[in-house]
Amino acid sequence: MIPPHRIVARLRDMRAKTTVPLSDLVRLIAAELVSEVCSIYVNRGGDVMELAATEGLNTLAVGRTRLRVGEGIIGLCAATASVMNLPDAQNHPAFAYRPETGEEPFASMLAVPVRRSGRTLGVLAVQNRAPRHFTEDEIDELETVAMLLGELLPTAGGSDGPSEGLGGTVPRVFAGTTLMTGIAIGPIIVHGTLRTGIRLLADDPEAELSRLHETAERMQRGLDELIAGVPHATAQARRPEDVAASREVLEAYRLVAADAGWLRRVGDVIRSGLTAEAAVQRVASELHDRMRRISDPYLRERLADIEDMAERLLTALTGDSPVQAVPPGAILLARRLGPAELLDWHARGIAGVAIEEASPAGHAAIVARALDIPAVGGTRGMLDTAQPGDEAIVDGDEGQLMLRPEAELRQNYARARETRSAQHAAWGELRTRPAATADGVRIKLMLNVGLALELAQLDRTGADGIGLFRTEIAMLARGAMADVAEQASIYARALDAAGDRPVLFRTLDLGADKLLPGTVTDEENPAMGWRSIRIGLDRPALLRRQLRALLLAAGGRPLSVMFPMVATVAEFRAAKNLLVAEAKRIRPAPVSLSIGTMLEVPALMWQLKDLLREADFISVGSNDLLQFLFAADRGTPSLADRYDILSQPMFDLLEQLLNMANAANVPISLCGEAASRPLEALVLAGLGLTSLSMAASGILPVKALLAEADLGAFRPVLTAIRRGGSGAASLREPITTWARERGLPL
Ligand code: PEP
Ligand code: MG
After folding, report:
1. What burial letters (b/e) apply to 503-531, b meaning 16+ CB within 10 Å?
2. Domain 5-156 is classified in which CATH homologous superfamily?
3. What is the mean pLDDT of residues 167-194?
């Protein structure tokens, strides 16, 4: 075989034409790679691989020979996204005989997947009469060609036979779960594929190589600075052996960035005629494929580090290249999405979001609610089906995504969207009325906020105050910790916006899925790991800086502060002491200092007597509490509906908490996502909670329902339902029935 840069050069010539017939491509590849057969199979949607062009097999089979993903050598190559190198393909157990192809004379086969953005678009295969293993060089060359093909396929003819076009064109519905209600309709945009403008083929490999090395050095320097700026990131635990182990992790990460091995590999690919960006992408996708097959956790981690580095390098390389503009009203599709990434996308103007791996209590969902972006999660498979240029509907109410909707469906949804805005306008009237039940029980409805832009919601919703200020969100949004003065100004803005209304600040809840860039975590269960107040107490300087900023922001005003993820009274006491000590040093002192805790860890329930003596207030973080009570990861979509806050264990827990707190005269509120759902809010009020804190989108719907609910009539019903539903996983159904029968707006 010859070096692929000749193929690359020929492909460049062909690319100058607007469309490239696949038959020309296979002829070229067969000739250049000196193989008797070259065939391209393309994924026709519905998991079918179809022979789209061939040089060497019977051309009558084009458009006819089809193999399901997983069927035959081609199907296996597609299913596993891995290279098949077979000296005697026809005696391979997976071989599927297709007489129309006339492939009997060809013994050896090399098949490689054609991939783009993590999706398998097709399979490229060469065959020869002589039974032999293909060499590493030959595999490398065919993989490079396959990568180019991945970029060309959408503009290539797709098929030389009868064609139904590349990929699916039929409407598809993906059922998932609601992350944020509402409807959005628009063109799709896929997270992680913004770099569509990257050049593939290089004119001057030497120039590309120096660009690669300059950028890699710049990245390395940036990384050194980043690591130096996080002095305690190496010491994630107090035990010296843990410190040493985590330092090793960090050092390994640093080494990976400087590692000549993978950069050399990128260099080799550049020499075959690709640009630096394309070469990095190629090596990253190789790594990705390799990672999927490795079970050794240590190796997996190292490869994941390299993959991450490749991503950073790619970002650095494409820094100046034009990024794809986000079309107005675009729907973002993502496999996973962090809260900071969603913030970024929101700033670019997306109207809706669908995330394959996300659940309602995850932080991306919380940000979606804060930003009022219709969002669905758990819509698995959508990324394999979506095509560039597709339109989609996010139906946040039903928790589903509709891809390529029919015109009629689209119209229906557009109408529904209008009706919703009219309903929202009607709720507007409720804004100025205090929240109370029909029988006059006042329930304070407070806001959960994290971003400055959300402060405007205080007046827009008529909320009674801020019941949860998630201080870490602003840090995530800026991608770094703010210094004391910057923090103080962020917090002061919240106090200014709230005026006389209370603001409950929560100290940094970092860790788990809320990681600042440059933070390294190697925990198996980060939600139960080194996070929140645990970090704060182990890094008292960090926590003290924040407490100082809060005190400075308050000036002579009242200040309320609470701590997240407290598991023991001792932790609460330690955190409280830090705040009290700081408060003594700051002038003017706040007119009142109220120090409380979140209740998210069930263990606190068995320390209530002590806790209630020392805490000024308690806010139930039902998202984490539910997760830890039922040992059910709040981020796992398949568990999202399995355990319910409307269930006997949670009711009993809240009842006991309220009884003891009322006796001790300690105010209780609840600030988990459940509070923003009208039915849940009704039940929480029924249990005796008089303060609920929620995303802005929940305030008016909850207010509307409470205004029509007779709490006096509901309470005995709730008691009866609790008594009658012993052992049930959820008591939602009978409660919903009662509310529906009374025509309450759920
Ligand atoms: C909670 O756990 O309920 C909570 C409000 O905190 P967060 O969602 O930020 O973890
Ligand atoms: Mg929490």
Report:
1. bbbbbbbbbbebbbebebbbeeeebbbbb
2. GAF domain (3.30.450.40)
3. 82
